Amino acid sequence: MEPQDRVINDIEVNLRLRRTLALVLAGGRGSRLKALTDWHAKPGIPFAGKFRIIDFTLSNCINSGIRRIGVLTQYKAHSLLQHIQRGWGFLRGEFNEFIELLPAQQRTEGEAWYKGTADAVYQNLDIIREHGPEYVLVLAGDHIYKMDYGKMLAHHLACGADVSVACLEVPLEDARGFGVMAVDDHDNVIRFDEKPANPQHAPGKPDKALASMGIYIFNAQFLYDRLQEEASEPGTEHDFGKNIIPKLIGTHKVIAHPFQDSCVMHEGATEHYWRDVGTIDAYWEANIDLTTVTPSLNLYDTNWPIWTYQAQLPPAKFVFDNDTRRGMAVDSLVSGGCIISGAVVRRSMLFSNVRVNSYSLVEDTVVLPDCDIGRHAKLKKCIVDQGCVIPPGLVVGEDPKLDAKRFDRTDKGVTLITADMLRKLEG
């Protein structure tokens, strides 16, 4: 323990959490998800049958005791704004609790849209100041994980940090897509490189790198000063990882907070679960993993629930029980409003209001809400976008060349089907 470190008790942490404002950056498109984000921002994409991606970050805030939250939006945010308004309106303003929507409004003199993560916060400085926080927690709204932000704040306070950066270990070959840190024996960040071509490995672990999670805790006044300095500098990208954080190394106290110290895990779990579902393959894998007997992410943990908006829908229904026509689902998650009518579903994730008609087969597939799968269709290793009507007899997942010609097929063999693609087939 460094001389300035001190012990922080739970009472002090709880008091400081009440003086913390969380800012969730939810304005990105997520272009690597291709057509899935043609009309929706990445944080608003459905995940795990009934949730949206942003629900995990917002639930972490609520479960951690942070009830003052701003959500910064920009790209095609209508469905995201609608979801938050419907599902997250339970906080009470008279208790100084809120989830405030902060769309890009060109509030500053330059009258520009958000140009980077730091600029998004800078453009809302007047609103942030009005709330009078002592600490500002900056979060990405497009990752899947469970984390107790209170433990990170306790670490921040104990170290007397100006800013703390949450970090996790990633394979060295994957680190080129992250901000990579080097730390000393007391968690002080001594080097920070954003998306380096040759990442530095973690101490004593030549196959691992220490990667930034894009989660920061700032002392509020310190953040205001840094953002104002950054805004006046020419040629900057106005980004926390590329500009703000690297400039602080060596001149201010920047602390790395290990994710394993605050990750919320269920009994028997061994993995510190965190997923960037920013590609078609990663999105498919994370959803399909939830259909396994013991998935890495526990959605059934009542001690750390994931909150969301859910429409009032009837229970899932399975009909017909003949040898050639049996409505059944095995090793699958089937959401409310679904009807499995004489069809077979295996190792798949069905979101709400999906109808799977007779004699069809759905295997290893993620089906988003409001889809209708026609009779005798066969779908294997697919993602079916919201609102698709799969024509009777369509077969996907058996002929890679044909799938790539008609739809969007990844190198790992996942086929994305959208309503626009289906309309082109009809034409």
Automatic annotation (TrEMBL):
Gene3D superfamilies: Hexapeptide repeat proteins, Spore Coat Polysaccharide Biosynthesis Protein SpsA, Chain A. Keywords: ATP-binding, Carbohydrate metabolism, Glycogen biosynthesis, Glycogen metabolism, Nucleotide-binding, Nucleotidyltransferase, Transferase. It holds the Pfam family NTP_transferase. GO terms for molecular function: ATP binding; glucose-1-phosphate adenylyltransferase activity. Its EC number is 2.7.7.27. It catalyses: alpha-D-glucose 1-phosphate + ATP + H(+) = ADP-alpha-D-glucose + diphosphate. Alpha-D-glucose 1-phosphate binds at Y114, G179, E194, K195, S212. Residues 22-291 form the Nucleotidyl transferase domain. Residues 314-417 form the Glucose-1-phosphate adenylyltransferase/Bifunctional protein GlmU-like C-terminal hexapeptide domain. One of its GO terms (biological process) is glycogen biosynthetic process. Pathway: Glycan biosynthesis; glycogen biosynthesis. The record marks Q74, W113 as: Could play a key role in the communication between the regulatory and the substrate sites. Homotetramer. NCBIfam families: glgC, PRK00725.1, PRK00844.1. Involved in the biosynthesis of ADP-glucose, a building block required for the elongation reactions to produce glycogen. Catalyzes the reaction between ATP and alpha-D-glucose 1-phosphate (G1P) to produce pyrophosphate and ADP-Glc. Belongs to the bacterial/plant glucose-1-phosphate adenylyltransferase family. This is Glucose-1-phosphate adenylyltransferase. It comes from Magnetospirillum aberrantis SpK. The gene is glgC.
